[in-house]
Specification:
The chain has a two-stranded antiparallel sheet with strand order 1-2. The longest helix is centred in the C-terminal third of the chain and has 28 residues. The protein is 61% helix and 11% strand. The chain has four helices and two strands. The radius of gyration is 27 Å and the shape is elongated. It is mainly alpha-helical.
Amino acid sequence: MAELIINTNDAALVKQNIQTDLILISEDKVEIILMKNKKALSSAHSWVTPTSLFLSFLATLITADFKTTLGLTGENWKVVFIILLIASFVWLVFAAFSFIKYKGKTSTEYMIAQMNKDKENK
């Protein structure tokens, strides 16, 4: 760590502490690390869509009075929305497990640590 102190005629004292780490890694290794972390990055927000759909279908089932439309009876529409509710819940469970599995592996610091770990393994 280098420390630079500049005294300018006793009027001001400027201190600057500069430390920098350099990671030398080949392009193919960066690509491998990014491909490994792609699933983690995509899982970070994968729970939003199934949660929104689940809540929408639930609100519809709670509040709607289904009537015969487009050749389907009110009971058939209710069954359709129950199936959609169950499907969105299953999707939400899988997305939540994926989110929990990859939690903490989506940060920039984690990826830099992966690159450093790869560098130290040489």
